[in-house]
Amino acid sequence: MTMAAHLNHSMATKAPAAKNSTAEKLLVAAGELMIERNSVEISLADIAQKSGVNAALVKYHFGNKDGLLLALLERDAANEMTHLDFLLAQPLSPTTKMKLHIAGIIKAYHQFPYLNRLIHYLLHGLNRDTADEVTKFFVGPLLDFHRRLLAEGVASGDFREVDPVLFYTTLIGACDHLFFGRQTMMRAAGIGPVTDEVCRSYVAHIEKIVLGGLLTNRARQPSAAGS
Amino acid sequence: MTMAAHLNHSMATKAPAAKNSTAEKLLVAAGELMIERNSVEISLADIAQKSGVNAALVKYHFGNKDGLLLALLERDAANEMTHLDFLLAQPLSPTTKMKLHIAGIIKAYHQFPYLNRLIHYLLHGLNRDTADEVTKFFVGPLLDFHRRLLAEGVASGDFREVDPVLFYTTLIGACDHLFFGRQTMMRAAGIGPVTDEVCRSYVAHIEKIVLGGLLTNRARQPSAAGS
């Protein structure tokens, strides 16, 4: 069930499908505004003006502003989230699946520069229903994916046993933080912006650190039995 | 230079020292309010009422609300931040120093449940000067500590070479995330709160994953040269 479907389920007063040009226009405008302003604090009036769509139609299509922001999150994260089951089913080693997953998360965050703040904003807003929707769409499926992939790796002898909830916290926290504090670090600590090159380096770094710590000694040194 | 000193430097209009009972009362009230409400969104009026101190004195002691919140962050993080140089100077292995550091960060976050959100709030607020103060007090010294400890570990043959900025991002992101998303995870994914026991487990987990990935093969298997 997609998050938009969830939303329809929980907000019975709004239109059934977001898949039409007016709704799409509103999402495009919201995403562009967030990039232009480097902030997720945008108003319905701004979205309406930029999209050329009457603000009243936001209510019709998305229920309210949170509904629009949830739909935007779903649109942007859909690629990575719907990919999880597919990835698990591939005839690849657990290590390769984990590497592809790490690269996928970093890519999604990088492609939509506001994605990380949007998730924070929706999770920590005053509306508990909104936060619950984000958890159901984002946290739950990711955690479930980690649980299954970790079990697969332990069974194959590639991964050491770790607590999936703690592993989720470590991996998602590490990925998220590249995009969270970077702007502040840039100003005060003389560190550059998150470029394509930084993303590639960080994917390699997380593989080295997180996968390095996760792998069994056997999986870590496949060709060297003695030191 | 402490952050309060920084603050005095950059906000010349306020009183020179926060070390007096009125200022302390305001900080205690602010911290207690954040715990009671499980939010860092508290007003000066609320702080004044709870502390029994006239709201005008906030301006006298801290310049403004951001100044008060920065002083609260300094008070709560001071233990861990002032400890960094001391820790580096100890006759301990780089691995032991890193373990103590990880435990120290988790302990500070756990002891002051609002600390993590307070840092996010101040870093992402509209006031750039405030964000810069947080970076100078928090991000800069931590990054410098990581830089020096990582170099020490590489020199001793215990750590693999890693980029300090990327390592900082991984470690602080992983620690921070335990406290960031937990409440939402609790509700929607059936996961319990961050107890003392969870903190201990997470410290052990981060040691296993992050240190596991950081250590050289030699340091990882000190007693087993083969296999």
Automatic annotation (TrEMBL), chains A, B:
Residues 43-62 bind DNA. InterPro entries: Homeodomain-like_sf (IPR009057), HTH-type_TetR-like_transc_reg (IPR050109), HTH_TetR (IPR001647), Tet_transcr_reg_TetR-rel_C_sf (IPR036271), TetR_C (IPR011075). Pfam families: TetR_C_9, TetR_N. It comes from the Bacteria. Keywords: DNA-binding, Transcription, Transcription regulation. GO terms for molecular function: DNA-binding transcription factor activity; transcription cis-regulatory region binding. PANTHER family: BLR6905 PROTEIN, HTH-TYPE TRANSCRIPTIONAL REGULATOR RUTR. This is Regulatory protein TetR. It comes from Rhodopseudomonas palustris (strain DX-1).
